[in-house]
Amino acid sequence: MSYQFTVSPDFTPDHLSGWYIFNTWLQHQTDNAIHLEMYNDFHDQRVAIQKNNVDLIYANPFDAAMLVREKGFKPLVKSLGISDEAIVAVNADNHVEDVAHLKPGIKVAVTEAPDVHMMGMIMLEPADLDASNVEMVASDTYVLVAKHLLKNEADVGIFLAEAYDDLSNMIKKQLRILVRSQISVIHHSLMIGPRLLDQREKIQNILVQMANDEKGKGVLDSLGFTEWQVVNDEEMEFMIDLMDTLTM
Amino acid sequence: MLHDMKAEDIVGDFTEVTLKLYGGLSREVLFTEIETPYPDGKLIVSTTDTKGIITHVNRSFVEMAGYEESELIGAPHSILRHPDMPPAAFKDLWDTVSKGLKWQGFVKNLRKDGGYYWVKATVIPNVRNGEVMGYTSVRRKPSRTKVEECIKLYPTLF
Question: First vs last Cα of chain A: how many Å apart?
């Protein structure tokens, strides 16, 4: 039997090959045939999940509730020390100093990443801004979010903090951070579906031990991670509850 | 356990009142007019058991409330209750979450030092295996417009 593994489409492009290397490593370690399917966007990935095609997923926190509560997925691990944080930034020439001074009608450049979008919009709430009174400028990547700000095609950009920090210094010099989230408890997680659940403990142990093995460590490096850390059911339920409060 | 507030903990001139709390409890509360602004980008998170006793707080909760974590765990959530908050708001909260629904509202919270801070609060029941095990409350920065509306509205609800 072959299983399907997929990765949240908001992965850093630099780590694309890392996920293929990880999949090969995982197949060897678990003696399972696992096919890595990279979907172009969240919509295509969610269609595959709804069709029960997915068995293993490095999931965006926004999708965790659906995976656990509707599709019977369980958490395995998360990357140690990495949480999803968002940044709201403007063109450095913009005179606005505080989010609260932004006005309805502004253009907001965003990517498709649902958790970052949500955190960014929460950080705009102090200015009484929401989806009904701003204009979204959809962008495929965070570099394009930055470009929209630099060309004054958007007033505000919402970034994954890690992606903002990875922008070139030349770009960052022309931007200014208005607010950076410090939430700490929202994170991507590797999750396992019903067809593989009987192997959950075995796979979890293999992943947790990965950093102790030289080859495993190299694979983690290619993903930009240092170590996997167990996510237990209650920790996942806590994050789902928290996300639930934030979508209201 | 909920203790009366102490004058030595208070920063600035204060007013003293006896607050009647849910369950027949009452508390001597000392409060000032000093506002602590909500920090940008942070969420204040806590969980309680089904009786409203605090079981978990995050760092932002501790920083904004001004209590030590050890003073908060095991205390009723009403340790944050400010006398300017109308009891009707909390009745609405409990009526809503006890039906298994989410509640959202703007709340003026009381700090240990007698000061206050406004939050936009969302409370949801923690349902595990079909049973409500407790509640999670997440607060975020409110808009000043909404706070100003509440400052006008809440005194009319007593």
Answer: 41
